[in-house]
């Protein structure tokens, strides 16, 4: 039980990578809080996770974020692990076709939202010498021909650099901050791009390992960073992408 006695918060925890991560953290001894905007889906998801609570919140609203952190502290008295996983994916468009509202929404959720949760969590993580794991994307590492999701790529690239900034800023508090960059993972977010066998074959072939990823494969990487196995690791950027980013 690598996380026995630890309290973890997973944002975007109602499905996909977030739900798989919450399950893995719980199975390894952590008490887990999951949060997401969709209350109904969140309450259904928490039933799948032992030792877990669900707190509905909109990552774009500061008061909602503060409420999540406050409820965790009220119930458990501390916070050891923050997994900044929540994110949205925009409609595929070239830059000149994106309106400002679309652009701002993606950055508000994928980047400023991570700032909000980290800001509120830091005072509590300072007391526990906690761990922050940011979920970015290999789209934040390099550009892909025809990807055309500029706001998404920009937000994920920024999160990679913020990981390094936060790792340095809070190293004196022994807070470790690391980042995982998945490739295409089989989740609700990617289903629109995998509608046909031809789509699936193409996407599998985009990854040198020969297939897309599964949510629990990212969750296991989160477990490593959250545990004492990574006690001397901070500011690390780990690609979990079947080799897609090294092509």
Uncertain segments: none
Task: From the 3D structure, determine the CATH topology.
Answer: Rossmann fold
Question: How many domains, as an integer?
Answer: 1
Q: Count helical runs.
A: 7
CATH class: Alpha Beta
Biggest sheet record: 7 strands, parallel
What is the H/E string? EHEHEHEHEHEHHE
Q: What is the first-to-last residue Cα distance?
A: 37 Å
> Approximately how much helix is present in the residues?
40-55%
Overall 3D geometry? Answer: globular
Overall mean pLDDT score? 97
Name the CATH superfamily assignment: NAD(P)-binding Rossmann-like Domain
Assess the beta-strand content as a share of residues: 5-15%
In the CATH hierarchy, what is the architecture at level 2? 3-Layer(aba) Sandwich
Rounded radius of gyration (Å): 17 Å
Structural class: alpha/beta
